[in-house]
Amino acid sequence: MSSNQSSDSVPTREVARRVFAREFNDASYTFKESDDERAPLYLLLPTGERANRVLVVGTLTETEDVGDESEYWRGRIVDPTGTFFVYAGQYQPEAANTLRDLETPAYVSIVGKPRTYETDDGTVNVSLRPESITAVDAGTRDRWVAETAQQTLERIQHLDDEGNEYGRMAKEQYDLPPDEYRTTALSALESLDESDSSPDTPTQSTESVSDPQ
């Protein structure tokens, strides 16, 4: 099991997990590890890791103000495996401003918290509430894909390890073969070889893919 670099007992930020859209959208189970109302809410990833925060990098392809009485921005971010949806309103003013101002398509890096919503038919949709949205370049996107593939494969490798509590939970909660995520990760790596690193609109930033603390 991956070590968690923060403690629930102190007010430090959780590590932002790297996860592809395919796995993120398959995740539906959330949990807390204490009865404290301020305890972190975790999304259980099917490859056997908990995620209170995630780091994603992809192409922002669409933005739309879907609010009624006030601005509430929705962004669509695409990675090699699927689509993330991010929502930002009055409580995420900087992220909302970024979604309003960015011209699409553009590469972006997003750190945010997973949010789940159950529809009337019982389907669980997963989205991101952003802490930050930053324009990045193609190289940053490519590094994120490589790092996320590596971490996904490592989670799968340790899924059945003795003592991997979140691996056990994932097998109990999800009827999803881990080989699907292995294939997804390897296909994402292959997509880097096929990419010309300039799919649409490169952006001005050359920041590394890091988790702002």
Q: For the report, how would you describe the main beta sheet? A: 6 strands, mixed
% residues in beta strands: 25-35%
Distance between the termini: 22 Å
| Mean residue pLDDT | 88
Q: Any descriptors?
A:
213 residues, alpha+beta, OB fold (Dihydrolipoamide Acetyltransferase, E2P), six-stranded mixed β-sheet, 5 helices, 30% strand, globular, RPA family protein
Tell me what you see in this structure.
Residues 1-10 and 198-213 have low confidence and may be disordered. This protein is globular. It has one domain (16-194): OB fold (Dihydrolipoamide Acetyltransferase, E2P). The chain has helices spanning 21-26, 93-101, 138-157, 165-173, 178-194; strands at residues 16-18, 30-31, 42-45, 49-51, 53-65, 73-79, 82-88, 106-118, 124-135. The chain is α+β, with helices and mostly antiparallel strands. α3 (138-157) runs antiparallel to α5. 37% of the residues are buried. Residues 189-213 are annotated as: Disordered. Residues 198-213 have a biased composition (Low complexity). This is RPA family protein.
Topology at a glance:
Blueprint: E1 16-18, H1 21-26, E2 30-31, E3 42-45, E4 49-51, E5 53-65, E6 73-79, E7 82-88, H2 93-101, E8 106-118, E9 124-135, H3 138-157, H4 165-173, H5 178-194
Summarize the structure.
With 213 residues, the chain is of the alpha+beta class. It has helices at residues 21-26, 93-101, 138-157, 165-173, 178-194; strands spanning 16-18, 30-31, 42-45, 49-51, 53-65, 73-79, 82-88, 106-118, 124-135.
